[in-house]
Input
Amino acid sequence: MTSVDLLVINAAEVVTCAGFSQAPARGADLSAVGVVRDGAVAIGDGRILDVGASDRLRREYRVDESKIVDCGGGVVLPGFVDCHTHMVFAGDRADEWAERMQGKPYLEILKAGGGILSTVKKTRAASEAALVAGARRWAKLALGLGTTTLEIKSGYCLDHDGELKMLAAARALAEELPLEVVTTFLGAHVVPKEHKANREKYLELVLETAAEVRRQNLAEYFDVFSEAEAFTVEEAERLATKAKELGFGIKLHAEQFTASGAAQLGVRLGAVSVDHLEHVDDATVAALSKGDTIGVLLPAVPFHLGMTDYAPGRRLADAGVPLAIATDMNPGSACTPSIPMAIAIACRSVGLTPSEAVMAVTQNAAHALGRGAVTGSLEPGKRADLVVCDVPDHRWLGYAFGYNPVRTVIAKGKRVLKREELLLC
Ligand code: NIG
Ligand code: FE
Output
């Protein structure tokens, strides 16, 4: 009998999402999540050793009683990968959100110097330690909601030192928490006030800062918010082309409020992902369906902003676009760290099935961070990132919402969350 570090047993379903470690699932495969009933997972040295029937794994592996995780009929899934967040920031925007709920448009708030720019003011004034403290709270909530790999973008300082400070804060957070953090440089979020009169100067500054980010190895990806009030597609192309030369992978915020052509630019540039896609046209859907760039849907954004124009997820999925889903956690357009909530909204308003949504927050989201071969599925050799949910089958991730279904989280092979029973006394 082989001895193991942890044995996860008695799952009504082990949802493996196996078979797509090399390339994201798309088309009919998007729902091919792979379910092992009455399943179990054996874990050793931080890796998944075996996945199969509970009976067999109990017979074949030896483990200390205290290292048995009994799911009691729950569902085991790969740890969630939140592949798009802006989790490092200072302050909040509850006031502006209240105005937004009374009808004031998001881009109008930004045009008037609020929105992203009001978070910039506060984030510039915050110390690195204060930023770590703020992000720690959200990251711990995310972990408790099943996220074991997390992307974090800069983009709320928009000056050389401040952007480096944000990325250093994200890295510091990664050191102290058990989850994996992947960082993205978003100096091209919007043009800050002091450069409004000279955009060219700001574009130069973004590239100078990008070079320093690479020198200090503070971020893997380079992102541009291509949108009215932010950067044109031409500007995004210039910046991203240079960023590629510096060695960054490319991500783009594309087609959020307007159909600009940014997503097609992403495909042309070989971007790892284009994110948002609320306003894609037919040509964009066709380009995405032929390319390898992942479409990252952020359904919590229209929900949070009280809008009705969700991304046409069903159309994109049927066209064969490889899709991922993320929270977009940020103080302005999506104040939630909850992947289960993003799944619930995706099923209702974006048109994905629960199986598709599960693949989109696990294996496909891992690919959107270049981690497809490392995490995102439950198969031998993968990093042992797992979530145990208190639900009878995986459809419940979409079906039941507004509470936290996560009972246990295992990250990098270690049990990092074990929810205690609620004591009603
Ligand atoms: O992904 N769209 C641009 N950036 C973020 C919002 C950031 C903010 O409002 O603070 C987004 O929605
Ligand atoms: Fe975003």
Q: What stands out?
A: The chain is about 35% helix and 20% strand.
